[in-house]
């Protein structure tokens, strides 16, 4: 009974930024608010304000860190709960989830193949660099 009271409000009114925070899409409400203002969150295909009330059945489209999410609101929450409970607040579109996972794998592969520097130059390499640079000055 208590768990259900946390998941749903009596008046069915939860702000969009608060719901996104409670569903663990954002670490803070301020970050959720910023994403909404920048147009990275759409409700039923429309750009909205953070103060808009979310209702069960609303379809949210989110763009977070180059990744796309499309979720349908199943339940409302005003409190941030553990991740296992947060996933019960929404259902995710399967095709969008698979596309996001493919993109995550691609981004991970790009990062792994990106050439990283060898770090700090050795004492000998630094002397060679200084000798090379001073050769142009004279």
From TrEMBL:
**Name of the protein:** S4 domain-containing protein
Question: What residues does the RNA-binding S4 domain cover?
Answer: 14-77
Disordered: region residues: 109-138
Q: Does the keyword DNA-binding apply?
A: yes
Which Pfam families does the UniProt entry name for this protein? S4 (PF01479)
Cited CDD domains? S4
The UniProt entry's sequence similarity note says: Belongs to the HSP15 family.
Gene3D superfamilies for the chain: RNA-binding S4 domain (3.10.290.10)
Report keywords, A-Z: DNA-binding, RNA-binding
InterPro entries the record matches: HSP15, S4_RNA-bd, S4_RNA-bd_sf
């Amino acid at each position: 009974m208590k768990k259900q009271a946390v998941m749903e409000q009596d008046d069915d009114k939860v702000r969009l930024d608060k719901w996104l925070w409670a569903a663990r899409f954002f670490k803070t409400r301020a970050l959720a608010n910023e994403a909404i203002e920048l147009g990275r969150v759409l409700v039923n295909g429309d750009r909205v304000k953070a103060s808009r009330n979310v209702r069960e059945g609303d379809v949210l489209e989110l763009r977070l860190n180059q990744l796309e999410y499309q979720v349908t609101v199943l339940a409302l929450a005003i409190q941030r709960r553990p991740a296992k409970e947060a996933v019960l607040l929404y259902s995710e579109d399967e095709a969008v989830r698979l596309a996001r996972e493919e993109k995550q794998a691609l981004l991970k592969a790009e990062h792994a193949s990106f050439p990283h520097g060898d770090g700090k130059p050795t004492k000998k390499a630094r002397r060679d660099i200084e000798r090379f640079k001073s050769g142009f000055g004279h």
